[in-house]
Amino acid sequence: MDESRRDFLKSGSIVAAAAAIPSSLHALGVQGRILGANDRVRVGIVGLRGRGENHIRGYGALPNVEIAALCDIDDSVMSERLAQVRKMGFQPKTYTDIRKLLDDKSIDAVSIATPHHWHALIAIWAMQAGKDVYVEKPCSHNLWEGKQLIRATEKYNRIVQHGTQSRSMPAMIDAMHKMQQDAVLGDIYLSRGLCFKWRDTIGHTPVSPVPPGVDYNMWTGPAPLQPFTKNHFHYNWHWFWDYGNGDLGNQGIHQLDIARWGLGPGFGFPNRISAVGGHVMFDDDQQTPNVLNCAFEYDRPAGKRVILEFEVRHWITNHEAGIGVARAASAASAETAQGGLGPKEGSYNSVGNIFYGPKGYLAIDNASGYKTYLGREQQPGPSAPLDKECHFANFIACVISRKKEDLNASIEEGHLTSGLAHLANASYRLGRTLNFDPETQMVKSDNEANLLLRDGDRGYRAPFVVPEHV
Hints:
Elements: H1 3-20, E1 41-46, H2 51-60, E2 65-71, H3 75-87, E3 93-95, H4 98-102, E4 109-112, H5 119-128, E5 132-135, H6 143-156, E6 160-162, H7 170-180, E7 190-196, H8 216-220, H9 252-261, E8 272-278, E9 291-299, E10 305-313, H10 325-337, E11 350-357, E12 360-365, E13 369-374, E14 379-385, H11 391-401, H12 411-430, E15 434-437, E16 442-443, H13 447-455
């Protein structure tokens, strides 16, 4: 980014942000409705495709929630989800522009399932409108946005849940208890996360007309307005830096969060970050790496270090520590009938975590649960099967009680985990190790890295600007 553009972005962002804020937000200190124990929380869901449908099903199953509003930029997606929600007995208002939804003072909470580049801006706008927020992972598109989210949460005193729903799974909570309170592994020295997902090439897609019923300007929002192609739109946006964060910030963010959580209290930002990898094998439009090896180093007292490793693979792989074996076995007959290898990524996944200590190791399979193996002979130890999570219920309970401390995945924890993904991606893109100051949340003596972690080489497109002063 040249100096003139950088200066323009910094000087103009406050004005542009003010222009973007919905009309009802200009009065500071906006507060939401005061809810009683018998009130139904009125939720607006924004971003209805993919994960947004999970939000609909999650809230729709709760007795103390009304799905009061839906927002999406694609009419075909809206029509399908509206019919689904009406069958549940709700009659929501519908919006294309999130700013109009936020002007509705009857909405108590906003649940965000948009592409990543919209997460922080909608969350900040919603807090300024006096609404509580459930924001999908990662909560930010870059490190600086995460810091802005924390500031907004503190200023507007809102309940904000991060969409790392593993923190609301009893089996995961039990695994953390076994490692931290019971110390079944001893002091953990290595935490490893796996994101091995079979993903085929996305190919090349040419510039084409915007599909009927799609507001592509609103979809693009804060990002540069690119000519429309199918690869820059539904789902494949994950593989472009303007919108997504690769699989590290997509599937991987869940395992990255578990990897950090398992180390115990006090493990937030690391001191050194190094990531190497590449976009291998395919000639296609994808920008983000499909092979990535990340290392996060934490300095501890007495010169000790704790290491967090993370690995992304997008093709043929072995299973590790038994993770993925049960899934592969259960799908084997179906795959054989359909010819074996192909783009059916789920059957070939190894997605989970491994924690190593002097007494043994603990393996978490995101599809089946956790197991421990103790001693030289790796004798079976404590284990538990995967069970249902209650993340939306936890959020709604906190909206009613106003007890932030009861959130299973606070925005503070979400910022730390999302920040790990941003730091690793920055290390990969710059081709060097980052020496990080966890207190200032800045890379030491590396202005280029700090700029990349601020807004990349992308900037923000007015009027969709994350404000300097929330």
